[in-house]
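User: quick one, fold this
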Amino acid sequence: MRDQAKELQAKLSAETVSVKTAGGSVVMTVNGTLEMVALAIDPELLTPDKKSKLEEAIKEAHRDAMKQMQRIMAMKMKEMGGLPNIPGLS
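Assistant:
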């Protein structure tokens, strides 16, 4: 079971997703260990009058990236035969 977990972790660590929000003005990349590895923000959004738009775009990008990565994680787990029998969950 540990080998399977290590294999899954290795496969997931190689995965990344990038999402764009605010018309492509914010680009966030998240890896398979759910770490944000890149964030690009169009300088035009870096003005005080666009602060709330930037905040919303970052939150939206994070939400979208997490959803996409969760789908990838579920697919990888399914490919490997699903979850092992875990007491209390099976």
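User: anything notable?
Assistant: The two ends are 15 Å apart (CA to CA).
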